[in-house]
Amino acid sequence: MLEHHPDDLDLLRHYREHDDQHAFTELVTHHVNLVYGTAYRLLKDTQLSEDASQRVFTALARKGKCQDIRHVSSWLYAVTQREVLSMIRSESRRSRREREAFDLEMLAQRPNQDRETSIEAINSMLGDALKRLSDADQQAAIPPFL
Fold this sequence. Notes:
By secondary structure, this protein is mostly helical. It has a domain at 8-92: Orthogonal Bundle (Rna Polymerase Sigma Factor, Chain: A), CATH 1.10.1740.10. It has helices at residues 8-18, 21-43, 46-66, 72-108, 115-131, 135-141. Helix 1 crosses helix 2 (21-43). It is elongated and about 70 Å long. The protein starts with 7 loop residues before the first helix and ends in a 5-residue tail after the last helix.
């Protein structure tokens, strides 16, 4: 246990050198408002902000063991911004995929449209969607031909 009132670097060093969970808890307590507030300001969503905060402090727990972090507040702020940006991108991709799936379903259900035209349009939309996937995601989405 630390004898004097430690600053962030003391807490982080103690956590790194002694796996001191109490020191880590104090770090979280000192910075939870900064991290959550930053996430909420950008996301405007309580649950997503809590998720982002959890991810940021998980990153601190992992990186704090092996990385020399000189300015804990600045590091947490930057990691929070990156995490929020990643979450926004992920949500945007998910939303786009849902819209495309809905559009495909609506196109397939049109009773007045020629079936051949519908199939061509669906194939075109699927091809466009597959082109936007990474190679690994394409391989996962397209079954191998036997």
